[in-house]
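ERR on first pass: missing label on line 2. Operator R.T. fixed the label and resubmitted. Corrected input:
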Amino acid sequence: MPDSSPTFSFRLLSCSGSARRGEIVTPRGIIRTPAFMPVGTAGTVKALYPEQVRKAGADIVLGNTYHLMLRPGPERVARLGGLHEFMRWQGPILTDSGGFQVMSLANLREMSEEGVTFRSHVDGSKHQMTPERSIEIQSLLGADIQMQLDECIELPATRERAIAAMELSLRWAERSKRAFEARAKPGQALFGIVQGGTDLELRQRSADALVAMDLNGYAVGGLAVGEGHEVMLSTLEGTTPHLPADKPRYLMGVGTPVDIMEAVARGIDMFDCVMPTRSGRHGQAFTWGGKVNLSNARHADDPRPLDAASSCPAARDYSRAYLHHLMKSGEYLGAMLLSWVNTAFYQDLMAAIRQAITEDRYDAFVAEHKARLSAAEGPNL
Amino acid sequence: MPDSSPTFSFRLLSCSGSARRGEIVTPRGIIRTPAFMPVGTAGTVKALYPEQVRKAGADIVLGNTYHLMLRPGPERVARLGGLHEFMRWQGPILTDSGGFQVMSLANLREMSEEGVTFRSHVDGSKHQMTPERSIEIQSLLGADIQMQLDECIELPATRERAIAAMELSLRWAERSKRAFEARAKPGQALFGIVQGGTDLELRQRSADALVAMDLNGYAVGGLAVGEGHEVMLSTLEGTTPHLPADKPRYLMGVGTPVDIMEAVARGIDMFDCVMPTRSGRHGQAFTWGGKVNLSNARHADDPRPLDAASSCPAARDYSRAYLHHLMKSGEYLGAMLLSWVNTAFYQDLMAAIRQAITEDRYDAFVAEHKARLSAAEGPNL
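pass 2 clean. output:
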């Protein structure tokens, strides 16, 4: 096939209720949706080799612009051939705008219409993040899917605060689009981010304005920040109908297996979350039988693997007793094995979700698995 | 082949000067000597999957009795099927006696003829280690090669102190042997440990007494504890001639690549050291070109791999710039990749040593590689 005009596109393959099965086609490969993107914060999905992430079934990973801009620096990554080459991930990469982590990690932040100035949490150095600089960094990294800079507020917030942040985010979306159009390579994509807190009217206004900009995809931002599962779902229900059917929809920073299943039922196509790797480093495993906390002493003598039927060697070949020992002893291998278990489980979950949509039995799939996956660790696990 | 009478044996295949190429045959597989045993302190070679250790070329790993007795406990490991099953290592395992780490890690130690009492550095619990208990623990773990309990003194030491420790160690060797004979499974082996500080007459007395006990192999203990490279080598030169040619010889806790090369030249067959994994966790890589400290800023923009010709993916496929970034960022993957690089390098070194002995060009091999391997990091690496 000729490689001369690489393009970015989305095609819808089937639906089951509002749940969508599709494919995002990028010059670096196809992303099967609904998709979960493992988070490679600082150019590595923590405690995993890139081959493991790929073999687990991930089509795309996420990189964090804030972390990478501070260390090793986007100009350096560009000189070294871009983020794909740097971290040895040849599939598509999505980068966030950096805005969320500036707000949650950086020091001495000052917001203005222009952007946000802050000091690095690593070395105290001063930086400015604007919509244009965010796109410049994401372009230097070589991200296949780039995100507009937005303002993400804490919830609950006043309506005035939510309006102001939403409207600023729209102006930043326009500036991001201009910057992206000036820099983008063929086949790269820019996503806008719907804001508006939990106010459905604001969400609609935000979505309508972004859709009018004709971006490559649309994210729902500002959720999973403490508003609760039901509020998140009702906000999604009021938002996705205002997004075009022929563009991918991305729910940022979500979430638990049940969050993902319910968001897919409301028309979301893409997810990212640190949960599988972070939980793994803290001793929690995700399995089809539910969550298992390997730090718990009741696993100390248990010779069973986490899941004898798993395709992941870490879930299949090591005893719970050994995993418990590794966690208690603070051994690297504990974090390595459980991050692997969880990354593979999340990809297995997405594959099962896609299969259920293809077979138009998505509601039954959710009903079958939801209770077990959401339960606290049970006595028989 | 019938499996009914598994045995432990050593056969010498060739020599080059005093350097020996051989094979230790155990029921769990052949150990090609000279051999380097990666250290799996607490039931895991730190930051590596067991498959990586095997594929790197290791025939045998070492487990630490002191760590495993405190956590998860030898009786628990035995209930779970033994250490091989627990840590998923199907090849031979050697365990130390625990004595060295009782001396270096435990609190409130009290020595007596009977043994040593101490408090755990993990939880303060009180324990007693005797020659009999050490063998009992090693048997519960299922170690293929077990070590006698000995008293390892700090150097320099008075002659009186060295004599007393050496003689106590001989009495403990006798008790270890009786305990081992009462417990050992067919094909398991017990090694004695030559002590005597840097006094060659004491070393000879120790060696002669141990050889008279007709053990399965002989270790040289109490070296690499601060006496210096040259003193270590001269002590070895005065010790190995008193050990039988038809038994394996093990230099405990050694060492650098050059230490190993020089000790092989003095008739040593087996080594263990935490250096490859500990150095890896601290950013130091071993290569045929010499040591490389990846934490150094001069690697930040270097697109070259550590060793493009390596059989180890970690040395071949990742840039020095990326490895530098991972170390600076404290990412798990940095420790994982460099522990892998070094474990593979040590096994490659042993394979090259064995090949050079087979071809009777061992002195030339040492001369060819010694300077580069011992140099501090050079400007062209």
